[in-house]
Design a protein that fits this description.
Elements: E1 5-8, E2 20-21, E3 42-50, E4 56-59, H1 61-72, E5 77-84, E6 89-95, H2 99-112, H3 130-140, E7 143-149, E8 152-153, E9 159-165, E10 173-181
Antiparallel strand pairs: 1-3, 2-3, 3-10, 4-9, 5-7, 5-10, 6-9, 7-8
GO molecular function: glycosyltransferase activity
Protein name: GPI mannosyltransferase 2-like isoform X1
Length: 182
Amino acid sequence: MMLMQQTWALFSSKPAWVKAQYSTSSIDSNPMAATVPGHAPKWAQKTITLPPLRRGCHLVTSQILKEIRPGLSDFKCGLAHLFLQHTSASLTITENYDSDVRDDTDTFLSKIVPEGRSAPWKHTLEGPDDMPAHIKSSMFGCALTVPITDGKLNMGTWQGIWLCEHRDALTARRVVVTLNGI
């Protein structure tokens, strides 16, 4: 069982979800927002710390949902933005059922981005796996945006959120989740 460490963003005196409410007059001119009368747009933000994971691709959907579910349930319609605060790991959404997909993806990344002392990279200050990790991270990216519908992430049946760890050094990873909507 993975242990999760969390930090709460603080924009008020209480450590909780960050929320900003705007007057309904700010959305009156927006025909999409007008479909939910009396609901002002709101924001919530939380930083989640995922425990160190070995190199490879890891399904983290349930860990993310466990941490954001209380705030997520406040949104009828909106967007969840996930931002990984690291340059040697990445986030992606793909197959959530067969672990072979995660293994195959890691195999692909290892073949396309060479590693080791014979690799052509100049940046090796943090070890021979550092520059390849930066390249792999840039390929998949460090941010995801997922629609929110009726208090849930609106992902496809077979979609899952992955953390791809591209280094051998075990490092906890921070993901900032920002929710916006009504």
